[in-house]
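Protocol step 4 of 6: structure prediction from sequence.
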Amino acid sequence: MSLFASFSVVSGATLLSRVLGLLRDVLFFATFGTSIYGEAFLLAFTIPNLFRRMLGEGTLTSAFIPVFSESQLVNKNNWSLLNEVLSRLFVFLGCLSVFVAFFTLLTHQFAWFSNPKWYLANYLNGVTFFYVIFICASAILVGALNLRDRFLEGALSPVLLNLFLISALCFVGFNPDFSFGQKALFLSLAVVGAGLGQLYLPWFRLRKNFGWKFKWKFSHSSELSEVSSLFWVGAFGAAIAQVNILISRILAYTLDDPGGVSYLYMTARLVELPLGVFAIAISTILFPVLSRAASKGDKVLYQSSLFAGSKNDIYVNHTLIYWSAASGRTCNQRSV
């Protein structure tokens, strides 16, 4: 598939996701308005998204792709690194999610939060946090698919999330039999269900088209060490951006007047539209191509692919893609 065709697939699916996201937001605010229940859900959903950007779509994927690309040059059926990363992700995020759920149970049992708004946000976070297990694992599988020039599953992932949330909002949104608390809980469960669907899409495609089979693997390889070193380089920058968003929403949530978190959320959604359709779409396409070229030492292919993206005004300053002469690898850091 050509660069332009791949870009069209990803940007088209992203645009569809943004349209569905607009419909989702309309239904969401029609259901909750700027009430405490809607604000609690938005704050609770911010926390798993922080881990998603760090351990999934952003930093870890950027560290995983160039190393995995090089291992695939030797043997395309070598899935050891993928299974090593997934095994550790499942264990770490599974234990973390259980801990968060246990903490939520303790706060409920001993009434640690006297303010109802904080109690509600903590309660919903205990449910939505399980989403990180599925979306982070999905992001790694999508990265493996991108190296095989399969971009559709990753592009459809946010579409699937929006469809789950839209369905949930249509079911409970205007039903008078559900209280606002029940509606917020149902929406949180829909997030977890969407995560399962987002994980299934790339999982199924890798198994069917490329013969991948997941196996628990906790051995330590040199490739895994390299992924770890690249990950920590980018994790700090990614964490700063996401923690800033989290702190901003927490501060807005502390205000006595409702609506602060909702307004921040809506403005962020507006900014993300051009970033998703253009900047993130082209970085998704270019990064695997540049990684393969760097692994092969093919500077001609590397430069031609890089300039092909910038010549069409697709390469923008929100994505930094650079050649590392020392290691012969491509690294990617997103500032969004």
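Step 5 (inspection) to follow. Residues 309-336 have pLDDT under 50 and may be disordered.
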